[in-house]
Description:
- By secondary structure, the protein is α/β, with parallel strands linked by helices.
- The chain has 2 domains: about 150 residues, Lyase, Ornithine Decarboxylase, Chain A, domain 1, CATH 2.40.37; about 240 residues, Alpha-Beta Barrel (TIM Barrel).
- It has 10 helices and 17 strands.
- The strands form 2 sheets. Strands 1, 2, 11, 12, 13, 14, 15, 16 and 17 form a 9-stranded mixed sheet that branches. Strands 3-4-5-6-7-8-9-10 form an 8-stranded parallel β-barrel, surrounded by 4 helices.
Amino acid sequence: MSSLRARSAVSPLRRPVLSAELPEALPTVADLVAALRPEEPVHCLRPAVLSATAETFVQAFPGDVLYAVKCNPDPAVLRALWEGGVRHFDCASPAEVALVRTMFADAEIHFMHPVKARGAIREAWARHGVRDFVLDSRDELEKILRETAATGVEGALGLVVRLALPKGGAVLDLSGKFGAEHEEAVALLRAARPVASRLGIAFHVGSQCLDPVAWRLAMALAGAAIAEAGVAVEIVDVGGGFPVVYPDVELPPLGAFMAEIEEAFDALGLPGAKLWAEPGRALVAGGASVVVQVQARRDDALYINDGVYGSLADAGALGFRYPVRCLRPAGAAPSGVVRGFSFFGPTCDSADVMRGPFWLPEDIAEGDWIEIGQLGAYGACLRTAFNGFDRARVAEVCDPAFDAVPFDAALFDAA
């Protein structure tokens, strides 16, 4: 008889083995490349950037900030966000809940997945003290009530109804999978009110949403559902979607998003209610980059040792472009003339392609390294073990965020 065995799809990221004279946190990515000359991808974490970004967002948002753990669950990332003042976490699975509770006994954990396994509800409620659950259907409401009661553990139950939004203008529209339509949301608010110690309504405008007004419009739809339900709510959750800078992307200032949210919330006239937000990308994108090596060049295509089955999934079918720079720690400095390149990843799948263009020195060649920025969000956490290319390392560095800065010859200087 065969037995079931649990196996993670991806081997854990490994800390690089550094010589004794090198500090645990290297000063810069260029120093790391010069010291290690890595032939495997290296994820470069910037804890100081993560903490500072979190502190800025927490101070700017007029409510509770719930970090979306799915975006990057690396323990070093979570610690840096905690240092920056994040005390609430948006979790979507028992594994995420357990990770956060293990690391932070006093954290506020919120189970924000609208469709949950029964065992996941019981484990979160009884074992990890989770009290807030999102739902978008009557079946899910009944499931939550039954499974929390079945544990025999008492507690103040928080219920948050996820409202569906019409298709919007975000880079990644999220209107198709989750959310109750207006009439159903009204019915769910009414049904949940008698059994909820605190009741809320939530929505999500879509990932990488560049328009602050989108939150105002969504808030108005949430307010209409609350008004028709005729019940008191304690929470309005504005979700995530807060954007970050990528090449050729211009963003309004963070204050513009906060102003729209605060003004729209005030217009709802909900005394005693508070705001929640679930940022992911906005907190962590700038806090990590990935260093890859060029294994071959064919005209304007570079074959690199990471790809869409690794850290660059969003650069594939979704076409995300990231800031890049060439690192050449020995020999001639890279050319100051840049050219647009596409990338091929290391697997044998021809779909492992990232069209870009990624602007790099026109003389880039096999053996050079490339730093790819803004990969603190959905980089390491989307890696797979496909074709056996699941080996990568992680190191902490002290240099600033590497985002969509203008191209300049100084970008290509390395130690």
